[in-house]
Each structure stands twice: as C-alpha cells, then as structure tokens.
Amino acid sequence: xxxxxxxxxxxxxxxxxxxxxxxxxxxxxxxxxxxxxxxxxxxxxxxxxxxxxxxxxxxxxxxxxxxxxxxxxxxxxxxxxxxxxxxxxxxxxxxxxxxxxxxxxxxxxxxxxxxxxxxxxxxxxxxxxxxxxxxxxxxxxxxxxxxxxxxxxxxxxxxxxxxxxxxxxxxxxxxxxxxxxxxxxxxxxxxxxxxxxxxxxxxxxxxxxxxxxxxxxxxxxxxxxxxxxxxxxxxxxxxxxxxxxxxxxxxxxxxxxxxxxxxxxxxxxxxxxxxxxxxxxxxxxxxxxxxxxxxxxxxxxxxxxxxxxxxxxxxxxxxxxxxxxxxxxxxxxxxxxxxxxxxxxxx
Length: 347
Fold this sequence. Notes:
Layout: H1 6-15, H2 47-52, E1 64-68, E2 76-80, E3 85-87, E4 102-106, E5 113-117, H3 121-150, E6 156-165, E7 173-181, E8 184-188, H4 194-200, E9 211-214, E10 218-223, E11 238-246, E12 249-257, H5 260-281, E13 283-290, E14 293-300, E15 304-309, E16 315-319, E17 324-329, E18 335-339
C-alpha cells in the first residue's frame, strides 16, 4: 500500500478481514509542511528586472510593503509601492467579494496583481486609505524625479494610474497609466521606462503610447459629484469623462479614480492645462467641407471662428466666441454650430 492512492488504500482496507496488520514507519514531516504561499507571488521589483528595465523605481525600503511570517525568517517578501496601482474595487468584478473586503495592488508593469482580502469592509477601508496615501506620496516623488530628468521641458503636470472603461469591451475597466504634460495627454498600458520617457516626453514623440493628443484638444465634459448619494455597487464609482479631438474624430474616455481628492486634482489640472495650451497655441486650423466646398476652419483665441475657402482664401463668415449659441457633433466627422443672428446653422 506504500504506492497506492488514498481511495485505493481505503478500498483495500474495507475489503480486508477483521484483523489487519499494518507496518508503520516513522518519517520526517517534510511532506506535511505547508507550502509558503509567499514564494509563489510574483512582482516586478526583483533585482534582475530593475537592472534590465530602467524605470523610476529606486530600491527604497520606505516604499515597500513587508509581509513577514513569524515561524520562518526566510518567509519574507517585499512589494514596491512606488508607481503601483492600488484599487478598492477590483477591475474585474469578483462575485465572491459581495462584502467589499478586497484590495488590489498592481505592479508598475501591470503584469502582476496582489489581492488582499480583509476580515471586513471597515478593515479593508482602513488598509486601503493607508496604502493609497503611501502610493500618492511616492507618486509625488516620482513626478518630481521625472521633471528633474526632463529639465522641466516639457513639464509633466500630473501622472498616475487610472481605470478606463471601454465601450467596445462590454463596459469592463482596464488599468491605464496616464501622463499629462504641458503639450500632450499620453495613455499607456504600464509605466514607461526612463529611456521611453526621454524619447517620447522629452522630444514630443508619441511612438509607443497607446493614445495621445495635444493638450488643447482635450476637454473634461462630466464628473461625478460629492452630493450624489452613494449606493454600493451602483453609484460608488468616482469618475470623469473627457472628449478629445483627433484626426479620426472625437474620442471619449471614461476614467475612474479611487477618491474624490484624486478626482478634483485630475480635473483641475486637466482644465488648467487645456486653458494654458490654448493660450500658447493661439490658433488652430482644420480642413473641412462646407456646403460641398473645401474650406478651412480657423479657431483663434481672441478673434473667434472663421471659415475661409481653401483655394482662394475667400472669407465665408467670421464670428466671435460670444456669438455661439449652441454646438454639436456626431463624434466622427460632422460638426454644426449655431450663431446668434446667423440665421441658419453652419454645418
């Protein structure tokens, strides 16, 4: 019976007689020791990873979580919090977490997720607030380091992790790393390495970012408010929506944040950055078709809107911003503007 399975051994004992002689041999409890679960957890802060992929992650003991098992001195793991993403609500809905006891921490590469389950929701809230405060403080340090590396040219106003909801992905949330400079809004799947930051942010090249747009083309159109009643699982999402003008049409992004403080900071920074980008750009020209004619729409910060013929440069109409009554678009290619005293809409 030494090489039999448990079910086979039970079956053999049941079929045996009334008296069964068993030979028992003492063996050390090597096979009875529990496997240390910490050895199976993966993270990005191993020495080889940091050495081969330069990033903004220093070997700072103050920016780590230490998980220690008292019975074994070697059962200890360190998880770097700098540039990680901590969420109170899992990005992938967990049917077992109906009590709201889970906290998720994603590594800066977004490849690894550390899921912590607390005893109750109150304890989960307390742990989340403490960890989130550390992550925010470390993010402020990383932002200062990036601007020091870039020499404030361009200046990075804000960066950090957000959760984005894609309409084409059945409304699921995904983690994105967003960087807002004085010139551009860049969206990544993970934290870019230092070489990538110098290449893209320092020289205004967007080669590897999943999405990018000039700062003046972004607009915050909707946010959740503190005054709304919070209903767990229904209205507890703190989010803001942006619309961005691109060559392919209007792109809408729905971003989720974890706290109202984050929401206020992101919205304020983006609005202020858009205004400053418009002041520095002063004028934007866009080719268009109006009444079956090829034209050019000019948007000037001080003079307003004007439409010129692409061929001869003939001025068709010109209005100040104060004359705009209403505007609209289909999100793809059509734009219509109604001016006060303009008679008909300008499509």
